[in-house]
Every structure is written in structure tokens, then in C-alpha cells.
């Protein structure tokens, strides 16, 4: 075992600590260098741990630090603990708790190593373990990268098991029985005579009992909650009765309401503004300049938005090209430019020699900027006093927010409290915090009074920090009815440094893997196979969008592969299977053939189907899309999807994430883009930024295999194959090969 | 002016052009109806006025005539409406932010169309946006709700 491996393993040690009236179980960090979020609850001299389970006389609390944006993260985290703890999670309080650096995400960076996910050799694995160390140093409590399940799968069950065995030990001490003779059931320790002692009655004594850490996890065959169909989500009743309280619903005594208008040319300054009209409007309390914009504090959100609309602001220029035409020219100029060369992580065979003669097939692809546009607009509630700053907001990055608020207010970070709220979607948007920074500035102007700031939809979409636009040039060759050479060059602005620059006020050095994620790392054995990333200059500030680099690379890579297969005269599915050099992925492709009855289906007139494959976040996904070319346009009839992300822990929610990912991928490919004029997007609401509707939604059939050796997350990997599978199906139905998204610029949809 | 919401009459002192949505949310603290777009594109703000689904972001409070019902008045966790019950049975919600509006739209639709065809469901429910892509389960839940309401 390498040294790096030991460091990673040590973080799994679970310990316990006394809290007022009870006990907490959680990750015990040997060096205790990272402060503990529960510290305020602990008496002097008592052990500090990062808790996942708290038990006192009033009940059991499960702490689920990964944010729930709608993907069901709270439920799965609670279920992982409850499975070993032997409680019904519906009887527990489930809370994200206070953010703390010990909740760092050791997995989110793991796929940034220069090995494709299907390479699980010793060097690749050691590198992945080592990536947990910088994440810890950066205190990266991040929800993202489809990492919640892989990062929590062992820790949270261990926390549940240690808590259970320790409670049994306390009961053993009390009764004089042996721990081995006791069992647990539904929040109780059960004695051999069948009598029960509630965990809540054992909690106080558990605090003084050394934790039982020599535990092993149950075999999946013994699971009662995990892997079972019809496990309800814990938030479902609240979300169907209007009783879930999202960040935008947060309410406090004496709270004021606010909205902001910032320079629509991102990063441009305010030259000056005239607030005369706004000042006289009903309910307006204060007009406050904020970074790059102006905010209005009022007694009602609508009044604040009306007053913001009445502001007359003169904007300074943004420092990126003003129009989409100039932006795409800049991206295209990067390809092949030596100075823009960023990385080449795939270079098999000899592409230059292979393409030196004979018929070379060439194509160009284009990907637009896309807004995340979760349905709940960005908002935050902040109260600043002389010595503390409290923040209520739905976020994936609570510690980055804490540190930024500390910087803005001058209040020490340990006196900045971030209360993570339920979220109305994210898709990556809540990895940003501009709206929180603005709200902190507003709250500083009315010290002691809480201010809830809500962006209008128009403000939200204008300041979305979109998915990067990208272009590619592809060249390839077929020989003897087979794909022989594949060369893809991608041009994109760097996403990671744009995002990190905003979060940390510093740039991160080195190549930006997101430029080619989803193309260089595909498990195909093409004899001459090369993928090159070119880094275009920073333009519109950009961010992570559900499935990140694979959302665009998945389209370009699989789309061009489909072109080559067509040129070879091969069957689209059979040739992908032949080329696939990774066993787990090949089985996924074969299974989608069975599920869609690929070999046996006669689609009939005006119909077509396409297959696409993309491995992202370590998860191979294959999809088949069937379409009909109707008089009204293309109708998507059916989608078949096969995935392999290892064991499925919550089948119902898993299926929801698979179908949701497919619909998200299809919908944006069909009709969504942000185009730029005067530095700002020309789309700022759902009338112009099109979103898929129910009548356009196909029937979806899915199947999950579990041949994969590692458990993975499923929130993102089903997005990337949807766009190419649809475009490939349209080609099959119409003969029209569409290489530029969105598709509805080139063809109508019914 | 007086406003009757979920059976309770409130006195509100607001300008008549304020959209009903913001009166409900910021003046009365009734936050089930959501702000999503403000231009009648998403339907997250859907409430009933005398049983009929309306976009509360577009309805000026001064123009309200009738009894207002929000998601909170349709049913509660302890006493679910058939549509909410069907939504829970099918585990429809992901982020859940659009679902207040989806459920209010479905409840009103099923009064006027108690035995809808698939096409009628697609037409009626396409005015409400869901960014998470819960549409297949919405389709299924509307059918289940129709059966529940018809006593099946």
C-alpha cells in the first residue's frame, strides 16, 4: 500500500463525542487539524469529531453534508446511515448540519487525474487516492461531479455501524449481557428476552463509552433499505404539499426584501447611476451600490424588483468579445494554434501518418453557451451584525461562501455561519456565489436586519455563468468497412480556472481537463486515435453545467464516430461494440441492443434511430433514440438507456435521475442556447430560452447493469449521450447530419 | 383590500397592480406558490381562483374576484388531496420547485376533464415547466389521480 493510500484510508476512522444530553458519531480526524462544526456544542476538553449521527433524549439526527439540489442526496445519505444504524430514516431528523471542513469531498477531484476512469491499474488508483489530499487542504466541501454516493458509500455506513455497536455495548454494560447476544431493530437494542431499550435512553451513557470501532459492514444481501424498490424519498411529502421551505421561502422577523441589477456585461463596472425614480417608489428602503451593480432594499420582493427596473445605470464595458460571432471566431482560431495548445491525453497509433493519404473525412462541430436555469432563481438571506454574519442559502459550496463573506465583512470566518437551504434545482448554478456576495453587501448597509435578496429570472439568466461554448475539428478515416483513424481537436475557454478564479480569487495553474473530458477518455480501441485540447482565451465567464465537459464532448465525439461508422458502411451499434475495449462498457452497449431490440426492429417509413455512448464520471452509458419525421417535424418517440454505475442503492430515485438526465440532455440539444450581443445573452427568460415540455417527452426505458467494480453517482452521466443519440437518429430518419447545436436551428421538432 | 385565501380572509394594504403571487408570498407568508419566471412561462406560481388554475404572477391583486386556493389549501401532509397522493405514490418530485404549480394545474384540469386521454394530459400539462425532467412521472401520476378521483 502506498503512503497516499494510507492517508486516504485513515479518514474512515469513526469516533464518538459527548454532546449536551447525548452522543455524536462521525469521522474522527487523527491530527484534528480541521476544526469541527459541532465544536460549539461540545463542552471544554471533550473530543471533537465531525458528526453524521447525533442521538439525545429527543431523538436521532442524521447529518447529510452533501447538498440536495433535487437529486435526492439527503435521502440517500440518510439511508446509508440508517441501513447500519437500524432505524427508520423517516423517524429521524435529517439535516445538512453546519458546514465544516471535515466534510471535505475526497472523490470530486479523483477523476481529474490523467487516467481514464476505466483504468483501475495501481498507478491510476494511487493517484486517485492522493487527490483526496489537496481536496482536504482546500477544505473542499463541494457537492458535484456525481460524487455524493461514491464518497459516502463507506463512511456513512461505517458511522451507522459504529453508532449501533457502541449503543449495544452501552446496553451490554447496563444489563450485564454480552454485546454479541444483543441485536438492534428500529431504533432499539433488543435483549435476548425480547425486551427493548430505545437508543435515546442509551445516548447519555454512550457519550462516556469508548466507541466500538472494530465493526464490519453488512453484506448487501442483508440490506433492508438500500437497493429496495419503492423506498420513498424523505422530502417527497413536503415537496408535494407546498411545505418544503426553499431558500427563497426563508423568512425571519423584521426581514427586508431586495433585488439587484449588475452589469450585464459580466465583470464590467458601474460608471454611475441615477436612482431618483426608484427612490420615490413605494416600499423602497435603501438603494445600495454593490460590486458591479446596484441593489434595492424594500419591504417586498416585487417592489424591490420594480425599483431595480427603474434604476438608470450607466455600465462600463466588459472585457470579452461582444457578440457570438466574435466569440466563435476566437474559439475556432484556437484550434491548431500552438500557443493555445493545452493538452493531449489520447494519442494512440500514428494519426498523422494514418491521415497522410487516402480519403480523409472531415467535420466541424459547434456547441453553444447554455444557462443552468434551475427553476428557483438565485437568492440568499443574510444578517450582518458587529461580530457575526449569518447566511441562509441553497448552495453546493458553503465553505467558499463562508470565506468570501468573511473577506467582504472583515468578520472572522469562524463567526460566519452558512445555513444550507433546500434547493429548487441547480445543474451547477449553485456552485457560484455572486448572489450571496451581493446580499452580504446589502445586509452590511442595514446592520442587524436580515435581508432576503432574490434575483429576477432575467437577472439570473444574464448572470448564469453558462456552460462553455466549444468548437471542434474532426478528421478520420475508414478502412475495409472499419473505423481506422479518429482525430478530434477541441477549442474552448478554460472552465475550471474561470470558476475557481471567482471562488478563490486566484487562478489555478496547469491544463484544463474539462476541454476534452468526455472525448479523450472514451473506451474505444481505434488504431489511430487522438484527442487534443486547445485553450481559447477567457471570454464569457463560464462554469460547470450538469455533466460538465462531457456535455459538449459527448456530442462531438460520438457524433463524429457515428459519421465514420456510416462512412464505413458498418452497423452503428455493432461497430461501437467491436471498437469497445472495456468489458463493462461493451456489456452496456450490448445490453442497449437487447433492450431496444436493435437487431430485430423494423422501424418503418419516416423513422430512424440513433445510438450513442459516453462514459463520464466513470459511468458507461449507452442510449438508443427512436424518432419519426412527421409533417410537423421530428418527434422523439422512445429512448432506451443502459448504464452501469455499480450497485443501485435507491432504484426509484436512480430511475428518476436517469430519465431526468436524458430529458435534460435532449431538451437542451433540441432548442436551447445563449447567444451574445453587446456582451450579454439575448435570452433572459423561458420565452426565449427554450426548455423541453411534457408533450415533447419520449417514453423512456432503462436498465442498470452492475458489473462495474466501483460504485458511482448517476446524477450526471445520462446527460451526455442524449444529444448525439438524438442527432444520430435524425440523421438516420432524414439523411441530415447536424453538427451544430441546438438542433432546432436546422430542423423543426413536432 | 380583502382577499380570501384557503378559506381565511385577509386584509392587505398593497397597490392593486401588485401580482397576486407577491401578495401571497411576501405579504401573507404563503410560500407554496413559487416565483420562477414572472412572465407566465413556467407555471410554478399556479393557484386556483374559484377552482380554476391561474398564473398568480400575471394576475394583479386588484383584479382578483373569488376564492383563492394555494397548494397549502388543496391538501396537507395529514390530509392529502388525491392529486398530491398520486404524486407521492409515483415519487414525482426531484427538486420539487415546480411541483406546487404542476399539482395545482393537474387538480384543476381533472375537474374539467375527469377521464383524460394521454393526448389531453400532454396538452394540459405542457404549460408547466420542469427543469429536472419529471415529466414521465407527471404523466403517470395524472392518470392515477384521475382514477382516484373517479373512485376507482
From TrEMBL, chain A:
The chain crosses the membrane at residues 12-30. It comes from the Bacteria. SMART domains: Ald_Xan_dh_C (SM01008). Residues 241-319 form the Aldehyde oxidase/xanthine dehydrogenase a/b hammerhead domain. InterPro entries: Ald_Oxase/Xan_DH_a/b (IPR000674), AldOxase/xan_DH_MoCoBD1 (IPR008274), AldOxase/xan_DH_MoCoBD2 (IPR046867), AldOxase/xan_DH_Mopterin-bd_sf (IPR037165), N-heterocyclic_Hydroxylase (IPR052516), OxRdtase_Mopterin-bd_su_IorB (IPR012368). Keywords: Membrane, Transmembrane, Transmembrane helix. This is Isoquinoline 1-oxidoreductase, beta subunit. It comes from Litoreibacter albidus.
UniProtKB/TrEMBL annotation, chain B:
The keyword Transmembrane helix does not apply. The lineage of its organism: Bacteria, Pseudomonadati, Pseudomonadota, Alphaproteobacteria, Rhodobacterales. CDD domains: fer2. It comes from the Bacteria. Pfam families: Fer2 (PF00111), Fer2_2 (PF01799). The keyword RNA-binding does not apply. InterPro entries: 2Fe-2S-bd, 2Fe-2S-bd_dom_sf, 2Fe-2S_ferredoxin-like_sf, 2Fe-2S_ferredoxin-type, 2Fe2S_fd_BS, Beta-grasp_dom_sf, Diverse_Oxidoreductases. This is Isoquinoline 1-oxidoreductase, alpha subunit. PROSITE patterns: 2FE2S_FER_1 (PS00197), 2FE2S_FER_2 (PS51085). One of its GO terms (molecular function) is oxidoreductase activity. Residues 1-74 form the 2Fe-2S ferredoxin-type domain. It comes from Litoreibacter albidus.
